[in-house]
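Researcher: Please predict.
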Amino acid sequence: MVKLKIYYTKPSITELEVEYAADASRNGWNDRCYEYINRFEEAFKQHLGVKYAIATSSCTGALHMGMGVKLL
């Protein structure tokens, strides 16, 4: 008996996202990473229609921010 799978999600990555990721990998290191972070924050705020957004360059940074918010 063959079970059918119901896919509830699939990747939606276009060539544009691939190019963005490749560009960030080639050029977004060290001090230049903040250019990419700031661009992402601005685009994300516009996408959501909100006043503030915070992005980090690493999961560690995000965890530190989360811990700081919890301690306040």
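Model: Helices lie at 15-27, 33-48, 59-71.
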